[in-house]
Amino acid sequence: MTSPPENLDVLIVGAGISGIGAAHHLQDRCPGKTWAILEARGAIGGTWDLFRYPGIRSDSDMHTLGFRFRPWTAAKSIADGESILEYVRETAREDGIEEKVRFGHRVVSASWSSEEARWTVSAERDDGSEAVFSCAMLMSCSGYYRYDEGFTPEFAGIEDFEGRVIHPQHWPEEPEYEGKRVVVIGSGATAVTLVPALARDAAHVTMLQRSPSYILSVPGEDPIAAALRKVLPARAVYPIVRWKNVLLQAFTYRLARNRPRFVKKVLRSGVIKALPEGYDVDTHFKPKYDPWDQRLCMVPDGDLFKVLSDGSADIVTDRIERFTPNGIRLESGRELEADVVVTATGLNLLFLGGMKLEVDGEEPHPSQLVAYKGMMLSDIPNLVFTVGYTNASWTLKADLVAEYLCRLINHMDAGGYDVCVPHLSDPSVTPEPLLDFNSGYVLRSIADLPKQGSKEPWKLRQNYAVDLRKLRFGPVEDGAMQFRRRVPAPPKVAA
């Protein structure tokens, strides 16, 4: 028998970096509200607790991936996963957030009642029982990919392979790759992270890619941050370096979009300098797309180029024909012998963590909805979601979304409102894909995601400065956001 719903003002789904940040802002700016976090896993950390593969690290600098309210004080700017995980967990402990997390609660569905102006949220506990919650505001901080499985293409003959196949999303506690021949399939951020880490202990590592990615060597430690720390306290250094990196990211992205040929030339020059003379750069490091059509892969202190230079790893650019008992046969006819194959082949997207939505008995499909300010959905009341930037650090957007949620709640309290719902009434706004990005994991699922609009406030801006002005300082009442008070159903008249 299901117990009565637990009533809360705000319910946050997900205890990763977005959820912990949202909880901090909520208790800081809306201190009178009751809230809790539902987390499907058994620990705080989200992505940084899930991924355990060797070398796991941030794919952007920690001065922007870190929280605005909690300075990143470690020397490393590109940090390892364990350090990031501890940073998130320390934040949760010190802010008293940890005790509000309900572990082992996987959210299954959320049903909105206009009569009650509340969400009823159903979660499945680890033991299979159901927990039910009622909340005035629902916030999804579950990211946008599936936690239970990654993406692996169908490889012919994979059942014939006598070695071990591992997906990075499910890295085993004892992978046993030391002294063995390892092939890493992929060319994205996960692959370029894995190869130098595995090369330390494996007999040899081959990165097998169908096509190259843009790869940029960056300092593992920020030299400007290091210099400033000698003369300024950490709390003063952090915002300076954070804004320096925000502006540098924005400038680099805009330059890549406006002058792709120039940026290609700069990136190619960096790769040539990092590799031995005569290395076949054009085969292995010349993508078919323009910079930032897909995310740029950063390697700290050129670690990937170092293992390619010393011979402990190599790159093969070819297509897979099939697996064989001893490895992988390529379309060129070459066979790569392997004891272990790592399929760093990407992620599967899952909007709102797969949570089933229902509004007054109807089930809207995400693809039929339009994103409002990149954080709410058309005609879906009192629901906020967090999706970070594709061209900058995730947390930059997550912090802004959490701040806006608090502004929204306080505005509703001041006006006596129970409901906030974005409504698209402008016929000149045309739908566009939510993510303007052609990475494989996006293209595979883009049809199932909400749309964005062609005009504000339905346009998703991949620009922190623009979103800062809009979400932190812009008006809450902008014409598209509608506010109203709860209208209960009239009492039934006895016959």
CATH class identity of the largest domain: Alpha Beta
CATH overall fold name of the largest domain: FAD/NAD(P)-binding domain
The fraction of residues in strands falls at 15-25%
Largest sheet: 8 strands, mixed
Tell me the domain tally: 2
The name of the CATH superfamily of the largest domain reads FAD/NAD(P)-binding domain
CATH-defined architecture of the largest domain: 3-Layer(bba) Sandwich
> Distance between termini?
32 Å
Whole-number mean pLDDT: 91
Give the overall shape, derived from the CA principal axes: globular
The unreliable regions are: none
Q: What is the strand tally?
A: 26
Helix content: 25-40%
Radius of gyration: 24 Å
- Quaternary structure classification: single chain
* Number of separate helices: 13
Broad structural category: alpha/beta
